[in-house]
Design goal:
Helix content is 19%, strand content 28%. The chain is an alpha/beta fold. The protein has a six-stranded mixed β-sheet with strand order 3-2-1-4-5-6.
Length: 142
């Protein structure tokens, strides 16, 4: 027909799970930076649902939020050592339909096994390699 029209697609994300490292090595300043980064992400690309999983060596607290707008203010829950495996197990058991798991952490902890989840690690630590997923350097000290 010779007609060009814009694509009809949504820039909205599906359900995302965010792991919030609240171990003893995470400072209040870093937690505030995580809040700011998450607010920016959800403003630019709002997910259909946002699940915040606070953890240290275990899942300490979970908040499930629905949009369309999110104002993310993180509060510390935990304070012990760090283990990522309980977060991935929680996602697999309760949020298997999540589009992505976004992990805010300094990467100093046990990773556990790769459960086949789409994982993006956001960390100020460049010296630690992640065994699965993709590492994104993020300044959490701002």
């Amino acid at each position: 027909y010779g007609v060009v029209s814009p694509q009809q697609r949504s820039e909205k994300l599906g359900k995302i799970v965010v792991g919030i490292d609240c171990s003893g090595s995470i400072t209040a300043k870093q937690l505030g930076a995580m809040s700011a980064h998450l607010s920016d992400i959800t403003r630019d690309m709002p997910p259909s649902e946002l699940v915040l999983v606070y953890f240290d060596s275990e899942v300490c607290h979970v908040d499930e939020l629905t949009g369309p707008e999110y104002q993310v203010v993180l509060e510390p829950h935990g304070g012990g050592g760090t283990d990522f495996a309980p977060v991935f197990k929680h996602v697999q058991e309760h949020h298997s339909e999540a589009q992505v798991v976004l992990m805010f952490t300094d990467l100093y902890g046990g990773f556990g096994e790769d459960l086949g989840l789409e994982v993006l690690w956001v960390s100020p630590t460049e010296a630690v390699a992640v065994p699965f997923g993709e590492l994104i350097y993020g300044d959490l000290n701002c």
